[in-house]
Amino acid sequence: MLNVGLDHFLVVSSLLFCLGIFGIVTRKNAVMVLMGIELILNAANINFVAFSRYGNFGYNGQLMALFVIILAAAEAAVALAIVLNIYKTFATVNVDEIDKLKE
Fold first, then answer.
1. Cα–Cα distance for residue pair 35/43, rounded to 1 Å
2. CA–CA dist 46, 52 (Å, integer)
3. What is the distance between the alpha carbons of residues 35 and 92, in angstroms, rounded to a whole number?
4. Helices 6-26 and 30-54, interaxial angle, to 10°?
C-alpha cells in the first residue's frame, strides 16, 4: 500500500509550477500565458493544503487556498475581458504584437 506523504504533494506542486513558468515564458498567446498563471496558482494551492494537512496548522491552509481560488476566478474574468478588448482593437492576441499600446 502506498502512503501519500508531504513529499508527493511537493513533487506534484513543483511540476505544476515548472509547467506554469514554462507556459508563461514560451507562449506568445495571451490566453496560454493566463493558463500558465493558473497553473502556478494551483501549485500554490496544493502547497497550502499540503502544509495545512501535514504541518498541523488547522484549517488555515484550506482557507488560503479558497482565497487563491477566488482571486484566480476574478483574475481570469478581468484578464479575459482585457484579452477580448485587445483582440477587438488589434485583431491578435499575441503578446509580442501588441506593443502599440505604448503610443
1. 12
2. 10
3. 17
4. 160
Structural domains in the chain? 6-94 (1.10.287.3510)
Contacts 24+ apart (CB under 8 A), 32-36: 33/95, 34/76, 34/79, 34/80, 34/83
Report d(CA 39, CA 22) in Å as an integer. 10
Residue 10 has pLDDT above 90, yes or no: yes
| C-alpha closest to that of 86 among 73, 77, 95 | 95
Q: Answer for the pair 65, 28: CB distance below 8 angstroms, yes or no.
A: no
pTM metric for this prediction: 0.80
Q: Which three cell numbers stand for residue 3?
A: 502512503
- The pLDDT tens digits of the residues spanning 24-81 come to 999 888 888 889 999 999 999 998 888 888 887 777 778 888 888 898 889 888 988 9
Amino acid letter at 20? G
